[in-house]
Design a protein that fits this description.
This protein is about 80% helix and about 5% strand. It has about 230 residues and is mainly α. It folds into 2 domains: about 170 residues, Helix Hairpins (Orthogonal Bundle); about 55 residues, no CATH class. It is rod-shaped and about 130 Å long. The structure holds zinc ion.
Length: about 230
Protein backbone atom coordinates (compact mmCIF):
# COMPACT_ATOMS: atom_id res chain seq x y z
CA UNK A 1 0.00 0.00 0.00
CA UNK A 2 1.32 3.44 -0.94
CA UNK A 3 2.07 6.00 1.75
CA UNK A 4 -0.75 8.26 0.57
CA UNK A 5 -3.21 5.34 0.78
CA UNK A 6 -1.92 4.51 4.26
CA UNK A 7 -2.36 8.09 5.42
CA UNK A 8 -5.78 8.35 3.85
CA UNK A 9 -6.83 5.15 5.57
CA UNK A 10 -5.39 6.46 8.85
CA UNK A 11 -7.41 9.63 8.47
CA UNK A 12 -10.62 7.72 7.70
CA UNK A 13 -10.08 5.45 10.69
CA UNK A 14 -9.28 8.36 13.01
CA UNK A 15 -12.42 10.19 11.92
CA UNK A 16 -14.43 7.05 12.64
CA UNK A 17 -12.72 6.71 15.99
CA UNK A 18 -13.49 10.32 16.88
CA UNK A 19 -17.14 9.86 15.91
CA UNK A 20 -17.39 6.65 17.97
CA UNK A 21 -15.82 8.41 20.95
CA UNK A 22 -18.36 11.18 20.63
CA UNK A 23 -21.21 8.63 20.55
CA UNK A 24 -19.68 6.83 23.53
CA UNK A 25 -19.44 10.01 25.57
CA UNK A 26 -22.98 11.02 24.71
CA UNK A 27 -24.35 7.54 25.43
CA UNK A 28 -22.55 7.34 28.78
CA UNK A 29 -23.92 10.76 29.70
CA UNK A 30 -27.47 9.75 28.75
CA UNK A 31 -27.08 6.53 30.69
CA UNK A 32 -25.99 8.36 33.84
CA UNK A 33 -28.16 11.39 33.63
CA UNK A 34 -31.66 12.11 32.44
CA UNK A 35 -32.01 15.88 32.30
CA UNK A 36 -35.81 15.88 31.89
CA UNK A 37 -36.27 13.50 34.80
CA UNK A 38 -33.90 15.44 37.04
CA UNK A 39 -35.66 18.69 36.20
CA UNK A 40 -39.08 17.16 36.96
CA UNK A 41 -37.80 15.69 40.23
CA UNK A 42 -36.33 19.01 41.30
CA UNK A 43 -39.58 20.78 40.44
CA UNK A 44 -41.49 18.18 42.44
CA UNK A 45 -39.17 18.62 45.41
CA UNK A 46 -39.66 22.38 45.40
CA UNK A 47 -43.41 21.88 45.08
CA UNK A 48 -43.32 19.46 48.01
CA UNK A 49 -41.67 22.07 50.20
CA UNK A 50 -44.20 24.68 49.07
CA UNK A 51 -46.95 22.19 49.93
CA UNK A 52 -45.44 21.65 53.37
CA UNK A 53 -45.44 25.39 54.04
CA UNK A 54 -49.03 25.74 52.78
CA UNK A 55 -50.20 22.84 54.97
CA UNK A 56 -48.52 24.31 58.03
CA UNK A 57 -50.19 27.64 57.37
CA UNK A 58 -53.56 25.89 56.94
CA UNK A 59 -53.15 23.92 60.19
CA UNK A 60 -52.26 27.08 62.07
CA UNK A 61 -55.44 28.75 60.81
CA UNK A 62 -57.48 25.65 61.72
CA UNK A 63 -56.15 25.84 65.27
CA UNK A 64 -56.90 29.54 65.45
CA UNK A 65 -60.47 28.96 64.21
CA UNK A 66 -60.92 26.15 66.76
CA UNK A 67 -59.53 28.38 69.46
CA UNK A 68 -61.90 31.24 68.61
CA UNK A 69 -64.87 28.85 68.50
CA UNK A 70 -63.93 27.56 71.94
CA UNK A 71 -63.70 31.10 73.25
CA UNK A 72 -67.13 31.94 71.82
CA UNK A 73 -68.64 28.82 73.38
CA UNK A 74 -67.14 29.78 76.73
CA UNK A 75 -68.50 33.33 76.53
CA UNK A 76 -71.92 32.08 75.41
CA UNK A 77 -71.99 29.69 78.35
CA UNK A 78 -71.35 32.64 80.65
CA UNK A 79 -73.83 34.80 78.76
CA UNK A 80 -76.71 32.35 78.85
CA UNK A 81 -75.73 30.17 81.77
CA UNK A 82 -77.29 32.46 84.32
CA UNK A 83 -74.16 32.93 86.38
CA UNK A 84 -73.76 36.55 85.23
CA UNK A 85 -76.69 38.79 86.06
CA UNK A 86 -75.15 42.26 86.00
CA UNK A 87 -76.58 43.96 82.84
CA UNK A 88 -73.39 45.94 82.21
CA UNK A 89 -71.34 42.78 82.41
CA UNK A 90 -73.79 41.00 80.12
CA UNK A 91 -73.50 43.77 77.53
CA UNK A 92 -69.75 43.67 77.69
CA UNK A 93 -69.82 39.86 77.29
CA UNK A 94 -72.10 40.24 74.28
CA UNK A 95 -69.68 42.79 72.80
CA UNK A 96 -66.79 40.39 73.34
CA UNK A 97 -68.70 37.62 71.56
CA UNK A 98 -69.43 39.89 68.60
CA UNK A 99 -65.84 41.05 68.39
CA UNK A 100 -64.50 37.48 68.48
CA UNK A 101 -67.07 36.42 65.88
CA UNK A 102 -65.85 39.15 63.52
CA UNK A 103 -62.31 38.00 64.11
CA UNK A 104 -63.43 34.42 63.49
CA UNK A 105 -65.11 35.35 60.20
CA UNK A 106 -61.83 36.85 59.01
CA UNK A 107 -59.87 33.77 60.05
CA UNK A 108 -62.37 31.47 58.36
CA UNK A 109 -62.00 33.40 55.15
CA UNK A 110 -58.22 33.07 55.41
CA UNK A 111 -58.63 29.37 56.10
CA UNK A 112 -60.72 28.84 52.96
CA UNK A 113 -58.08 30.67 50.92
CA UNK A 114 -55.33 28.59 52.52
CA UNK A 115 -57.24 25.38 51.73
CA UNK A 116 -57.56 26.48 48.09
CA UNK A 117 -53.83 27.11 47.91
CA UNK A 118 -53.01 23.72 49.45
CA UNK A 119 -55.42 22.00 47.11
CA UNK A 120 -54.01 23.64 44.00
CA UNK A 121 -50.38 22.89 44.96
CA UNK A 122 -51.40 19.33 45.71
CA UNK A 123 -53.05 19.00 42.29
CA UNK A 124 -49.96 20.44 40.64
CA UNK A 125 -47.77 18.01 42.56
CA UNK A 126 -49.95 15.10 41.50
CA UNK A 127 -49.52 15.99 37.82
CA UNK A 128 -45.80 16.27 38.36
CA UNK A 129 -45.64 12.96 40.25
CA UNK A 130 -47.24 11.28 37.26
CA UNK A 131 -44.80 13.00 34.93
CA UNK A 132 -41.85 11.81 37.01
CA UNK A 133 -43.25 8.27 37.03
CA UNK A 134 -43.71 8.31 33.25
CA UNK A 135 -40.22 9.70 32.64
CA UNK A 136 -38.72 7.14 35.03
CA UNK A 137 -40.52 4.27 33.31
CA UNK A 138 -39.43 5.49 29.87
CA UNK A 139 -35.86 5.84 31.04
CA UNK A 140 -35.84 2.38 32.62
CA UNK A 141 -37.03 1.06 29.29
CA UNK A 142 -34.39 3.00 27.39
CA UNK A 143 -31.47 2.12 29.63
CA UNK A 144 -30.78 -1.47 28.50
CA UNK A 145 -30.57 -0.25 24.88
CA UNK A 146 -28.27 2.57 25.91
CA UNK A 147 -26.09 0.16 27.86
CA UNK A 148 -25.88 -2.12 24.82
CA UNK A 149 -24.96 0.82 22.60
CA UNK A 150 -22.34 1.94 25.12
CA UNK A 151 -20.79 -1.54 25.29
CA UNK A 152 -20.67 -2.01 21.53
CA UNK A 153 -19.34 1.52 20.96
CA UNK A 154 -16.68 0.95 23.60
CA UNK A 155 -15.58 -2.20 21.75
CA UNK A 156 -15.53 -0.25 18.48
CA UNK A 157 -13.42 2.51 20.03
CA UNK A 158 -10.95 -0.07 21.33
CA UNK A 159 -10.77 -1.77 17.94
CA UNK A 160 -10.30 1.53 16.07
CA UNK A 161 -7.70 2.78 18.56
CA UNK A 162 -5.66 -0.38 18.08
CA UNK A 163 -6.03 -0.09 14.31
CA UNK A 164 -4.82 3.51 14.42
CA UNK A 165 -1.79 2.54 16.51
CA UNK A 166 -0.90 -0.24 14.06
CA UNK A 167 -1.28 2.12 11.09
CA UNK A 168 0.84 4.79 12.75
CA UNK A 169 3.54 2.20 13.46
CA UNK A 170 3.57 1.24 9.80
CA UNK A 171 3.68 4.86 8.67
CA UNK A 172 6.51 5.80 10.98
CA UNK A 173 6.76 8.65 13.51
CA UNK A 174 8.23 11.31 11.23
CA UNK A 175 5.61 11.06 8.52
CA UNK A 176 2.89 10.64 11.11
CA UNK A 177 4.04 13.89 12.74
CA UNK A 178 3.91 15.68 9.41
CA UNK A 179 0.38 14.38 8.95
CA UNK A 180 -0.58 15.43 12.51
CA UNK A 181 0.73 18.95 12.02
CA UNK A 182 -1.28 19.32 8.84
CA UNK A 183 -4.40 17.86 10.48
CA UNK A 184 -4.05 20.23 13.42
CA UNK A 185 -3.62 23.24 11.14
CA UNK A 186 -6.20 22.41 8.51
CA UNK A 187 -8.78 20.11 10.09
CA UNK A 188 -8.02 17.27 7.72
CA UNK A 189 -4.57 16.50 6.38
CA UNK A 190 -5.46 14.29 3.43
CA UNK A 191 -7.73 15.34 0.59
CA UNK A 192 -8.82 13.53 -2.50
CA UNK A 193 -8.12 14.77 -5.97
CA UNK A 194 -11.23 14.37 -8.07
CA UNK A 195 -11.50 15.39 -11.72
CA UNK A 196 -8.19 17.13 -11.39
CA UNK A 197 -9.31 19.31 -8.48
CA UNK A 198 -8.18 19.30 -4.87
CA UNK A 199 -11.23 18.52 -2.72
CA UNK A 200 -9.77 20.64 0.06
CA UNK A 201 -9.66 23.96 -1.76
CA UNK A 202 -11.41 23.03 -5.02
CA UNK A 203 -8.57 24.40 -7.15
CA UNK A 204 -7.08 22.58 -10.10
CA UNK A 205 -4.05 20.47 -9.29
CA UNK A 206 -1.35 20.46 -11.97
CA UNK A 207 -1.22 17.10 -13.73
CA UNK A 208 2.37 16.49 -12.71
CA UNK A 209 1.50 16.87 -9.06
CA UNK A 210 -1.51 14.59 -8.96
CA UNK A 211 0.32 11.99 -11.00
CA UNK A 212 2.98 11.91 -8.32
CA UNK A 213 0.23 11.69 -5.73
CA UNK A 214 -1.32 8.78 -7.59
CA UNK A 215 1.94 6.87 -7.33
CA UNK A 216 1.62 7.38 -3.59
CA UNK A 217 4.16 10.08 -2.82
CA UNK A 218 3.49 12.63 -0.09
CA UNK A 219 2.47 15.53 -2.30
CA UNK A 220 1.00 18.74 -0.95
CA UNK A 221 -1.59 20.80 -2.79
CA UNK A 222 0.10 23.94 -4.09
CA UNK A 223 -2.67 26.21 -2.83
CA UNK A 224 -4.10 24.74 0.40
CA UNK A 225 -1.11 22.70 1.48
CA UNK A 226 -3.03 19.51 2.27
CA UNK A 227 -1.69 16.14 1.23
CA UNK A 228 -3.19 14.88 -2.00
CA UNK A 229 -4.69 11.44 -2.39
CA UNK A 230 -5.65 9.97 -5.72
CA UNK A 231 -7.69 6.77 -5.66
ZN1 LIG B 1 -5.92 22.21 -2.07
Amino acid sequence: MSLASQLYRLQTTELQMREKRRVLKETAARLNHNADLTAAEEELASLASRLEVARKHQRKLEWEVDDLNTKIRGLNDKLYGGSVRNPKELVSLEQDVQSIKRHLAGKEEQLIEAMDVTESIDAEAEVLRQKVATLKAAWEQERPGLQELKDSTEAEVTRLTEAVLTMRDAIGPERAQHYDRLAAAKGVAMVKVEQGRCKGCNLTVPAGLWQRARVGDMVECGSCGRLLYVE
